[in-house]
Structure formats: structure tokens, C-alpha cells
Write a structure and sequence with these properties.
The structure holds 2 protein chains of 2 kinds. By secondary structure, chain A is α/β, with parallel strands linked by helices. In chain A, 48% of the residues lie in helices and 15% in strands. A 6-stranded parallel β-sheet of chain A has the order 7-6-5-8-9-10. Chain A has a 4-stranded antiparallel β-sheet with strand order 2-3-1-4, sandwiched between helices. In chain A, strand 2 and strand 3 form a beta hairpin. In chain A, helix 5 runs antiparallel to helix 6. Classes of the chains: A alpha/beta, B mainly alpha.
């Protein structure tokens, strides 16, 4: 089998080639290769990588086609792999082992999209079909059998997970955002995505509160009125530029008294702090600061890293299994690969 | 004896269900959950059969006919284990809160284990003053309430773990496996809000019975006094949680203190040889 893969990933020192390739639609790449007589090819294009897998094609002609489309020199930063090395690489990409955030699961969907695009254009033969179906299968297997994809890998997703640990489902819950900066917006986006039904934004500058609220179907609140809002909110995210704490213990205590025992989840991502540390001691109030969330992310990433070795073993085993199958094709006695659940 | 064999079988299955419940808590494997429910369900069937066998032996005495065999430690503990296992099936397992099995099923196994290993399973004719339809009402209601309170206590344990984890700011994997803090809080609150009236009704029925046979409804015997203190703790819990809207550990501790009193009520009264002793046949 003459499998060739060319990759430009986040590992390269320069991102120029990757960026030039990202601008070219995958369909155009495949169509161009087809026109040049490459029968089997599939491409994977994400913001962190561009990868091309071809069967029985010459490196120079493939590279030439790509350079023409991208309008940039690509050869210098290209990683080239052949046969089993290429198989192993695709399997570890699909497993999230080659990702910037180890174990992230988006890549599996992107591999699938890339495969489907190639299949739709009739660019996949038996080898590429089996290779990509196998890659999807290995990607799933690694995530279910090892801890490489466990634990949230970003601050907003950890915050949402903690909110769900306190409240259960977030639909029907309300959030109050203090400040209208980029961090506040990111938090609003995540909470809205998880179904938080009511979003209130308070900012010293009314216009900015209004704009942010409008983007997420929320409600802008006058800065003076946010203490009253504290009674209704379940999650409060503070990220103002205030020089001293805006959410004092007195303010929180008096709000808690009027909340009928509902828990209150406070997140302080401002520096200097927006929320007095001592509110964490109030019953039913949980204050997490940016560094607490970051520590949880770091712990999750550390345990993912520990699982990488186990994940690599799965990838290696499946790679040599695939290699044996590929070799058996030419002997006329095709080995059977254990049927993959992935499609 | 048939009853003993069946009870041991049920105990064995309950213990195995406990082990599966801990396995489920530690790695949330679907297989462990299924194993837990299968073993618990089979245990329940054996336990019901054991109870039926006991009933048959008990009713072999014509004077016992139609009374429930809860006049001895064995009968009472076995019935409570049955009620608690059943409550877990109906409340937690149905609501997909099976992960709480590790906190509740040990009480099922413990209660039946105590009966099988420490209590005398033999049956005899009921003492004359117990041959009353009140025997099917007063203790049965109270023991059902005890089983429900044991269930709430298990929920409290999970609630405390969850609350501590969240306050520590370093939540472990366990934190994400347990039900949410609010789900545990409302489950605990609802079980107690439903069971405290049951406890009070049971006590009220006891007072009516006492009035019939002893001439006065309440005689401050140790068991009666402890039962009242138990009710007071649970009442205090409901007031703290819903009356004054307090969250955090304090209300949870109060409800757990209620369960401690309940244990004293059930076991302790035996020592003080009041009129409620199981051994004395009342």
C-alpha cells in the first residue's frame, strides 16, 4: 500500500503554510487532485491543522497542486509520513493525542467531516474507506477506554460543570454578569448555551451592558440596581475593572437572607478582585476565583496527560492491526478487521 | 427452616448489591448499576418470600391470625430492611439516582444482617395484650417511617460529601458523579417532609392504643420520650430548611441528629426495659 500523508499542524514553527491552506476549501483541494489524476485522497482541515491522505500518489505532484491552490510555498513545514506511520498518525489525530488540548473531542467530528467530503466526491477507495472508518473507531475506543478525554479542559467549561454540580440542569436558572468585557462575554455565551434562561448584565457603562445583553437575549440592568438582581440570580460572574470589591459580604448576606435557601454560585474572574473572599464562608454560597477554576483545569489536564501512554498503546495496537490487514490485501487472503462500530 | 434460608439468601444478595453500588460510585460503569439493581431486585423477591414464610409460621398459631409478625427484633429489623430496599427501588432507582445506592443499601444489608445474625427468628403465640388490630397499625407505620428516615440519612451523607467538595474548591471526580447539590437537598427535604407526619401519625396511633389498654395515652417511657425527641429534631430541620430558608451543613447535621435519636429510640429502649421492649413482649 502506498499511503502518503502530508500535515501542517500547530507543531510547526511557522503557521504561514497552515493559514494559507486553511483558506482553501477542502472540496477544491480534492477536485484539483482528482483533475491531476490522484484517485484516492481525503483532507482534514481545522484551525490547528491541515492534513492530506492520498493513496498511490507522488509527493511532488500533490505538493505542487496544494501550493498552486494556496498560493504559498508549503514544502518547508510539511510533515511527511508513509504507510504505517501515516496510519498511526491519523489514528492518534482522531484520538485527540495530537491536539493542542490533549483529548479534545471536536477533532473526531472533524475527521468524520473530512472523510465524508472525500467520499461524496468519490475520492475514497477500499483502503481509504477502511482507514478512515478505522480512525473514527479508534478515536471513540480511546476516549471510552482511557481517561484521555475526561475532565473539562477550559475555564468556562469547568465553571459550567460546577454550576451543574450545584444546580443540576441549568435551564430555568438565571445568571447575573457584572462587567461587560471579553471574559464576561465568554461566560455569558457558555451559560446561554447550557440553557440558562435569564441573563442579566450590569455594567457601569449602560451602553456596554445593553450591547452585551442584546447579543444573548439578556436584560441590561443599571449598575445601581445590581444588588436587587442578586436576589434572583443563581450564578453571578464578576469581571469588572473596579479597583476594589463590588460584591461585599454585607451585600451577599442580605441577598442570601431573601433567597429562601437557594444556592448561590459566584465566579470572580476580575483582577483585582470583585468579590470579597469571606462570602465563601456563608452557607449555601460558593465562590470560585479564576485561579480555582484554572487549578481544576490544570488538574484535569494532568490526569489526561497521565492517560496518554495508555491511549498510545491502543493507537499502536490498532495501527499494526491495520498494517497487517493492508499487507494481507496483496496476498489474496484478506484478514478480517474486527468490525468497527464507527461509520 | 425455610424462612432462615430465604433470609440468608436475601442478605447475601443485598450485600452483593452493596458491593456493586460501591463499584458504581467509584467508576460509574453502567454494568455495575445494572448488577446492583438486578441483585437488589432478586434480593427483594427472596426477602418477600422469607417474609411470607414467616407469616405462615406465625399464623400457624390460630391466636396470631391476621397480625403482622413485627413483635420481635427479627420481625421488626427484617420488615425495615424490606421497606428500605423497596423505598430505594421506588425513589432513587426510578429517578435515576441509583448512584446513591452506596449510601443507602448498606442500611438494608445492615438491618437484615442484624436480624439474621443476632436476632431470634423463632415465632410463638402473641402476648394477649398485643392481639389487637393496632399491632398492624402503630408499629407498622413507625417502622415504615424509620426506613424512610434511613433513606434520608443516606441522602444526607451524599449531600455532605457534595457540599464539602464544593466548599473545598478542589472537587474530585466523585463530585461530578453524585447528583447535584440541589437535587440531593430537595430529595432529603421531601423525604423528611413526607415522613415526619408519618412518624407523628404513628405516635398518635400509639397514644390511642395506649389509652385503650393502659388507660392513659402517654406515660413518658424511654421509647416514647426518645421518639418525641427524634420528631423534634426532624421538625427543627424542616423549620431551618424551609421556615428560615437556611442552606449549608447546619440543617443537614440537624436531620442526621434526628436519625441518631431514631437509632436510640429503636435499640436503646430495650436497655431501659420499658413497656416497649421487644424482648419483654410488651
Amino acid at each position: 500500500m502506498k499511503l502518503l500523508s502530508l500535515s501542517w499542524s500547530h507543531r510547526a514553527r511557522s503557521s504561514a503554510a497552515r493559514e494559507a491552506l486553511a483558506a482553501v476549501p477542502v472540496e477544491r483541494v480534492l477536485a484539483e487532485l482528482k483533475a491531476r489524476g490522484v484517485a484516492e485522497a481525503a483532507a482534514l482541515s481545522t484551525c490547528n491543522r491541515f492534513e492530506l491522505y492520498t493513496v498511490a500518489a507522488r509527493r511532488d505532484s500533490v505538493l505542487g497542486a496544494l501550493e498552486e491552490l494556496a498560493g504559498a510555498p508549503l514544502a518547508e513545514h510539511a510533515e511527511q509520513r508513509e504507510d504505517e506511520n501515516a496510519v498511526g498518525h491519523l489514528f492518534s489525530v482522531a484520538s485527540g493525542l495530537d491536539s493542542l488540548v490533549v483529548g479534545e473531542s471536536e477533532i473526531l467530528g472533524q475527521v468524520k467531516t473530512g472523510y465524508e467530503a472525500a467520499k461524496a466526491l468519490g475520492m475514497t477507495g477500499k483502503r481509504l474507506n477502511v482507514l478512515f472508518q478505522r480512525a473514527l473507531y479508534v478515536g471513540k475506543k480511546v476516549r471510552t477506554e482511557t481517561a484521555v478525554g475526561e475532565g473539562c479542559s477550559s475555564v468556562p467549561s469547568v465553571a459550567v460543570q460546577l454550576a451543574e454540580t450545584i444546580f443540576g440542569r441549568l435551564d430555568g436558572k438565571s445568571a447575573l454578569i457584572l462587567g461587560a468585557g471579553a471574559m464576561a462575554e465568554l461566560a455569558a455565551k457558555h451559560l446561554a448555551a447550557r440553557g440558562a434562561s435569564r441573563l442579566a448584565v450590569a455594567n457601569r457603562t449602560w451602553e456596554r451592558a445593553y450591547q452585551l445583553a442584546a447579543r444573548y437575549q439578556g436584560e441590561a440592568v443599571r449598575w445601581e440596581d445590581f444588588p436587587a438582581e442578586l436576589e434572583r440570580a443563581d450564578v453571578v460572574i464578576a469581571s469588572t475593572g473596579a479597583p476594589s470589591a463590588v460584591l461585599t459580604r454585607d451585600l451577599v448576606e442580605s441577598a442570601v437572607r431573601r433567597r429562601g435557601g437557594r444556592s448561590l454560585f459566584l465566579i470572580d474572574i476580575a483582577m483585582p478582585r470583585d468579590i470579597e473572599e469571606s462570602v465563601h464562608a456563608i452557607d449555601g454560597v460558593y465562590l470560585y476565583r479564576l485561579e480555582d477554576l484554572e487549578a481544576i483545569v490544570a488538574k484535569n489536564m494532568a490526569s489526561r496527560a497521565e492517560a496518554v501512554a495508555a491511549a498510545r498503546r491502543v493507537v499502536e495496537a490498532k495501527t499494526s492491526e491495520f498494517g497487517a490487514w493492508a499487507r494481507s490485501l496483496s496476498t489474496g487472503k484478506e484478514l478480517s478487521l474486527k468490525h468497527s462500530e464507527a461509520a | 427452616m425455610m424462612q432462615t434460608v430465604l433470609s440468608w439468601g436475601a442478605l447475601f444478595l443485598y450485600a452483593a448489591a452493596c458491593a456493586a453500588a460501591f463499584g458504581y460510585l467509584l467508576n460509574k460503569a453502567e454494568g455495575a448499576r445494572k448488577a446492583m439493581l438486578t441483585m437488589l431486585g432478586t434480593g427483594l423477591v427472596l426477602h418477600l418470600a422469607a417474609f411470607a414464610a414467616r407469616l405462615a409460621a406465625f399464623w400457624a398459631y390460630p391466636e396470631n391470625r391476621w397480625f403482622m409478625p413485627v413483635n420481635s427484633f427479627f420481625g421488626a429489623l427484617s420488615y425495615m430492611a424490606l421497606a428500605l430496599a423497596f423505598a430505594f427501588f421506588v425513589i432513587e432507582a426510578r429517578k435515576k439516582l441509583g448512584i446513591l445506592g452506596a449510601f443507602i443499601l448498606p442500611f438494608v444489608a445492615g438491618s437484615l444482617g442484624l436480624a439474621v445474625m443476632k436476632a431470634d427468628p423463632s415465632v410463638g403465640p402473641l402476648a394477649p395484650q398485643l392481639r389487637s388490630y393496632w399491632l398492624n397499625i402503630h408499629p407498622m407505620i413507625l417502622m415504615t417511617a424509620y426506613a424512610a428516615f434511613a433513606n434520608a440519612f443516606g441522602v444526607c451523607l451524599a449531600l455532605l460529601i457534595q457540599e464539602r467538595q464544593l466548599k473545598s474548591r478542589k472537587p474530585s471526580e466523585l463530585c461530578y458523579r453524585l447528583p447535584s447539590l440541589d437535587a440531593l437537598d430537595s430529595l432529603n427535604g421531601r423525604i423528611i417532609a413526607f415522613t415526619l407526619p408519618l412518624l407523628l401519625i404513628g405516635l398518635g396511633m400509639g397514644a390511642v392504643w395506649a389509652h385503650e389498654i393502659w388507660g392513659r395515652p402517654w406515660s413518658w417511657d424511654p421509647k416514647e420520650t426518645m421518639a418525641l425527641i427524634t420528631a423534634a429534631f426532624y421538625g427543627e430541620f424542616l423549620w431551618l430548611r424551609y421556615g428560615s430558608g437556611q442552606r449549608g451543613r447546619t440543617p443537614v447535621y440537624v436531620s442526621m441528629a434526628g436519625f441518631a435519636c431514631l437509632l436510640v429510640t429503636f435499640f436503646g429502649a430495650e436497655l431501659s426495659s420499658g413497656r416497649h421492649g421487644f424482648m419483654g413482649g410488651k
